Amino acid sequence: MYSEDFQKSRYLIIMDNIKDRIEKGDFNPGERLPSEPELAKQFKVSRSTIREALRALEQENIVTKKHGIGTFVKAKPLYTSGIEELFSVTDLILRGGHTPGTRLIFSEYKTANAEEKEIFNLKDDEKILLVKRIRTSNQEPLVYCIDKIPAHLLPEGCTLDRESIFNFLEDKAEVKIDCATTNIETINGLPEISENLKCDVKTPLLVLKQSHFDEKTRLVLYSINYFRSNNFSFNVFRKRLK
């Protein structure tokens, strides 16, 4: 029997070995890994050590287990980005080397509801421009976007006429987005959004709810963006305070 410390080091070594083989292309995205008994035989360890290594790989989102079938290599996200820097969905797609596009679902001025009045600090009769769009990458649906802008910031009757909402605000309202606060959640079970993104309703969606402020610290845009979690990976740099 291996000691507890040795067992721990073994599973980490096996984990790194499998990761290296995936990086080298020995195992491709969607491919099933050898079974636990086969891996145990290859590495000359117990199945419990193999299970520990596979569990760690699953926690790192490198593999996924399908009950009764096996362990499969997960596809890498198409887009990986830090969230410290603020940029539009259009810029995100362009940075990934793809062609951005837009499919408009809804665009209309409406009287702000109670939640929207609170968000923008609006009066009872004030309106917002509500826009719902599908952002595409190389013509494939990528992000379901809901954008809300106070109507008083825009010229009367002005409608969204371009892909980048940041550029739209700069050109039409002379409003430049300076910063944003972001809340990140995961959710599923939204049939309308899942259908538009061409994914199963059980597929987790990554949701970014963002309040955008201009250089005068005015809240000028509130956005809810639904990303397919298998296409995106967001990260943030964190530093320990002394």
From TrEMBL:
<dbReference type="InterPro" id="IPR028978">
    <property type="entry name" value="Chorismate_lyase_/UTRA_dom_sf"/>
</dbReference>
<dbReference type="GO" id="GO:0003700">
    <property type="term" value="F:DNA-binding transcription factor activity"/>
</dbReference>
<keyword id="KW-0805">Transcription regulation</keyword>
<keyword id="KW-0238">DNA-binding</keyword>
<dbReference type="Pfam" id="PF07702">
    <property type="entry name" value="UTRA"/>
</dbReference>
<dbReference type="InterPro" id="IPR011663">
    <property type="entry name" value="UTRA"/>
</dbReference>
<dbReference type="Pfam" id="PF00392">
    <property type="entry name" value="GntR"/>
</dbReference>
<dbReference type="GO" id="GO:0045892">
    <property type="term" value="P:negative regulation of DNA-templated transcription"/>
</dbReference>
<dbReference type="InterPro" id="IPR036388">
    <property type="entry name" value="WH-like_DNA-bd_sf"/>
</dbReference>
<dbReference type="InterPro" id="IPR050679">
    <property type="entry name" value="Bact_HTH_transcr_reg"/>
</dbReference>
<keyword id="KW-0804">Transcription</keyword>
<dbReference type="InterPro" id="IPR000524">
    <property type="entry name" value="Tscrpt_reg_HTH_GntR"/>
</dbReference>
<protein>
    <submittedName>
        <fullName>GntR family transcriptional regulator</fullName>
    </submittedName>
</protein>
<dbReference type="InterPro" id="IPR036390">
    <property type="entry name" value="WH_DNA-bd_sf"/>
</dbReference>
<dbReference type="GO" id="GO:0003677">
    <property type="term" value="F:DNA binding"/>
</dbReference>
